[in-house]
Amino acid sequence: MKENAPVYIYDTSGSYSDANVEIDLRKGLPRLRDTWQRQYNIEGGKTQMYWAKKGVITPEMEYVAIRENMNCETMGIETHITPEFVRSEVARGRAVIPANINHPEAEPMIIGRNFMVKINTNIGNSSMSSGIDEEVEKAVWSCKWGGDTLMDLSTGDHIHETREWILRNCPVPVGTVPMYQAMEKVDGEAEKLTWEIFRDTLIEQCEQGVDYFTIHCGIRLKNVHYANERLTGMVSRGGSIISKWCMVHNRESFLYEHFDDICDILAQYDVAVSLGDGLRPGCIYDANDRAQFAELDTMGELVEHAWQKNVQAFIEGPGHVPMQKIGENMERQLDKCHEAPFYTLGPLVTDIAPGYDHITSAIGAAQIGWLGTAMLCYVTPKEHLALPDMEDVRNGVIAYKIAAHAADIAKGYPGACIRDNALSKARYDFRWKDQFNLSLDPERALEYYKTANPVGGKYCTMCGPNFCAMRISHSLKEDNCLTH
């Protein structure tokens, strides 16, 4: 029988993909982009957006184009994803390449609706559970299972040390919410926060190598009270913190007032800003309300300020949204935020499945990804219940890889179906090893197969040898050949 042409799968896990290799976290990863940065002297505000506007294709842009086009050339599939196209999308603000000059270990990737849908994974310790070793291990394994970016949401003790270990061992862009560390500096009392404390925290994390920050700059004093109309109020930690500050001081947020200063800092390191949705809906009842959309409109104002400073920016979105309201979110974001990339948590399409919210959210994620969302923030089975462990991270990542890939197929991304077609052919030909290797979680597929198919063969125990439709189909083909 005819074999498949080779299918290439991008893998950021490196030696971590081999369960037999002992991982040396103290050594860290190779500094892939050191020489690229020296070549383009990316410092002093010379960001990826700066060079893109100048018409220059950086090594990062070229790398991204190759990465996005995997398999297309070998399969003879026509694609529009050229280095020049990447440059033009970054220049227009429709795509972001998060790449802090102090995180050269990260392999360049792109977030934009005209590219493959990406997924982010959240990890982080807290004052109640989890430590540095556990969080670093989650980071390493989330890369192995296919996370495209990683957010460290650590609170409590050892925030700086946890982040340092993660950055030096993370081959994907790393994001944080700087407000969490700033809050630790004021012992958790939001009203004691100042611009100076937040500014110093930003610089500290930029120096470490964080690639993008979630900053809740869209909270306005005049809009905070809208949350009082809700069933579940505010569910964003950062949003609730800055809202409390606004109400206590009865003045505009220092994040909003100092947004241009924030951008000046980020531009020095080429750190992207993820405009956080502090008023995102925390239940489907609150979806698409005036609190959510008032903040989204403010984000549209701020993203233009970021672009003027050559700071790459994307917009965060909900949250909890029933399916019939998802389309309105995407349409309004494109309109009000000038086509900046959209980055959504889910959305969860129902609220009645605690313990299964990786499924309720992946349903909404696939739909909003198809409609144009550039990156999806994963949700684990323990959302709303507890900090996820490694198995929860695995389940969340795989659920979202499915959602993102389904969205790529639906939107007709070049070469999106290559892997599906190769796996289908392997399945029809009973090439079990190829079927496992082409799957999103080969180890899980092999584990399930072995539990019921100790010998193997040209059938599976779902049907058995006499009722296997594909085996019968093969015989019909052979009989037809003999007849003719």
Describe the protein in words.
Helix content is 45%, strand content 8%. The protein has 484 residues and is of the alpha/beta class. The strands form 2 sheets. It has an 8-stranded parallel barrel, surrounded by 7 helices. A two-stranded antiparallel ribbon has the order 1-2. Helix 6 links the parallel strand 3 (118-123) and strand 4 (149-152). Helix 3 crosses helix 5 and helix 9 packs parallel to helix 12. The longest helix has 21 residues, at 390-410. The mean pLDDT is 91.
The termini sit apart by 19 Å
Average of the residue pLDDT scores: 91
Helix/strand/pairing category: alpha/beta
Largest beta-sheet characterization: 8 strands, parallel, barrel
Number of strands: 10
* Order of strands in the sheet with most strands: 3-4-5-6-7-8-9-10
What fraction strand?
5-15%
In short:
This protein has 20 helices and 10 strands. It has 484 residues and is of the alpha/beta class.
Which SSEs are present, and which pair or pack?
Elements: H1 34-40, H2 48-53, H3 59-68, H4 72-75, H5 83-92, E1 95-96, E2 111-112, E3 118-123, H6 132-145, E4 149-152, H7 159-168, E5 174-176, H8 178-185, H9 195-208, E6 212-215, H10 237-249, H11 254-257, H12 259-269, E7 272-275, H13 290-308, E8 313-317, H14 326-336, E9 342-345, H15 357-371, E10 375-377, H16 390-410, H17 418-428, H18 432-437, H19 442-452, H20 469-483
Helix pairs in contact: 3-5, 6-7, 6-16, 8-9, 9-12, 15-16
Keywords:
globular; 8% strand; two-stranded antiparallel sheet; eight-stranded parallel β-barrel; alpha/beta; single chain; 10 strands; 484 residues; 20 helices
